[in-house]
Amino acid sequence: MTTFWTVFISVLTLGTIFGCGALVLWCSKDYEGLKDGEDMGHEYDGIRELNNPLPKWWSYMFWMTIVFGLVYLLLMPGLGGFKGLLGWQSSAQTVRSLEESREFAKNADHVYDQYHRELEYKEKLYGKTFRALAYVPNTDQLLPIEAIAQNREALRVGERLFAQNCSQCHASDARGQSGFPNLTDKAWLYGGAPAKIKETIVRGRVGNMPAWRDVMGEDGVKEVAAYALSLSGRKVDAKLAAKGKTRFVVCGACHGTDGKGNPAFGAPDLTDNVWLYGGSRRAVEDTINYGRQGVMPAWKDILAEDKIQLLSAYIWQLSHLENQ
Question: Which segments of the protein form a coiled coil according to its record (predicted)?
């Protein structure tokens, strides 16, 4: 933190605390020379003001909060660059990457580092549970994802992992939203086999649908959109679709000449009427016009292997067990 912000925060914080103290002290004094309960000569709407002192319990409580605030600022960080006498911090402030975080976790004393202290505590508390559910007993061999999916306790743990790490994009019910796939159907961009699902979680995915507006022109985009919609049985202008079929040859390089997609690089199937960004004519035209860029982050550096195995099992069973 720069010197300016250190000074600014310190002056603002201490000024507020001492200002409150000065206000309480000023209100505790009798500057009118009146006796307690004497009329002060002020009246509003039939109500007259009497010279009554502040309640003692209220004044004492206010002074206690001021003292508490000053003691807190001495012990804990809060005044700009001052770290407090205890040296507590929410996390390692110098860490800028996952690699640095892991190195810090190995070598540092975490007594006053809240984040790493909680990680260590949770690992001691739940680490054995994750391992027992994900590994073959007394070995370092992971259980097959299909086998884990038969274990109700493992699925409950996987569901919680999903809620913590995946629901922000795929929604709490895993049905996705615009731009984020529904994980409960069988329309898998990169394949829905257990190994493929785990691969997606571990490595992440980067999808890139190029923009064709400048290549096809406005009419060309409408024609290809009509043909793409017709592949899933939608009612479209037959003449536009016929022209779009001719232009679709450039799309076939990714989506296949039959429009059924290609899981090798995540090109969606256009015949199943499942649309990641919306299946209206306008939405499909926008996709062709401007392209789409989607990113699924890699979790291999965030979640341990046992957690990824449990999470993979939970996601796999959403479309393979519950829907059968």
Answer: none
For the segment 194-206, what is each residue's pLDDT rounded down to a tens digit?
999 999 999 999 9
Would you say 209 is a known binding-site residue? yes
Tokens 């202290």 sit on residue: 117
Q: Is position 251 annotated in a ligand binding site?
A: yes
Question: What pairs with residue 207 in β-bridges?
Answer: 294
Helices 305-320 and 114-134: crossing angle in degrees, nearest 10, is 60
Per-residue burial over 28-37, b if 16 or more Cβ lie within 10 Å, else e, is: eeeeeeeeee
Q: Is residue 116 marked as binding?
A: no
Residue 27, annotated ligand binder?
A: no
DSSP 123-168: HHHHHHHHHHHHB-TTSSPBPPHHHHTT-HHHHHHHHHHHHHHTHH
- Burial of 79-88, coded b for 16+ CB within 10 Å and e otherwise, reads bbeeebeeee
Phi, psi of 132 (to 5 degrees): -65, -30
Output the six-digit token pair for 258: 């039959």
Report how far residue 294's alpha carbon sits from residue 205's, in angstroms, rounded to the nearest whole number: 8
CB atoms within 10 A of CB 306: 19
pLDDT value, residue 70: 94
pLDDT digits (tens, 9 = 90+) for 30-63: 766 777 778 888 888 889 888 888 889 999 999 9
DSSP 251: T
What's the predicted TM-score (pTM) here? 0.70
